[in-house]
Amino acid sequence: MEIKIPEFCLVALVGSTGSGKSSFARKHFKPSEVISSDACRAWVCDDETRQDASHDAFELLYYIVRKRLKNGLLTVIDATNIHPDDRKRIVELAREYHVFAAAIVLNEEIETCIERNAARPERQHVGKHVVVNHVRQLRRSIGKLKEEGF
Question: Helices marked H in 29-125 — which ranges?
Answer without folding.
Answer: 37-45, 54-70, 84-96, 110-118
